[in-house]
What we know:
Blueprint: H1 11-20, E1 23-28, E2 34-39, E3 43-46, E4 49-54, H2 58-66, E5 69-76, E6 81-92, H3 97-107, E7 118-131, H4 141-166
Antiparallel strand pairs: 1-2, 1-5, 3-4, 4-7, 5-6, 6-7
Amino acid sequence: MTHATAVTLTEDMRAVIQSASLCFVATVTPDGRANLSPKGTIRVWDDQRLYFLDIASPRTRENLGRNPSMEMNVVDLLSRRGYRFAGRASVHEPGSDIFADAMQRVFGDGPATYPVATVIVLEITHAAPLLSPAYWTTSGERELRDRWRARRAALDLQFDEHVARVGAVTVDHHDTQR
């Protein structure tokens, strides 16, 4: 049995993760389909691992229990670039050292501000850059960021108008089927 070599995170990878704070995680369902789920607590664990708090991810957790393969896609919205990280994930329950360490890292000495079911850690064995084709039509990242700041402001205004017109979405906090 051979093991894949861990990937070492670069300074740029760390900066994109910090900037994005949201990633999309893909796992494999029991019938072989992809399950994609957003995660808003992505963080760097160390030079070869990433983690997120499992707040409402029972399907992600179930899938990893059967098949630990996982991919995370992280993209900085304004720069329109990011990274694809893949590897083997592990699920850490309350009471484990990793769970306690993750809670300390996120919440410090204070109480958790939302319920956390588990902590999921990805050991990165593959990383690849993601780059938008929008770079083909600009002079580079600075121009693209400026262009997307203006576009983002216009999109936010349009969506605010939509919410004002149709009403804000309310959420059943017990809907955790991701």
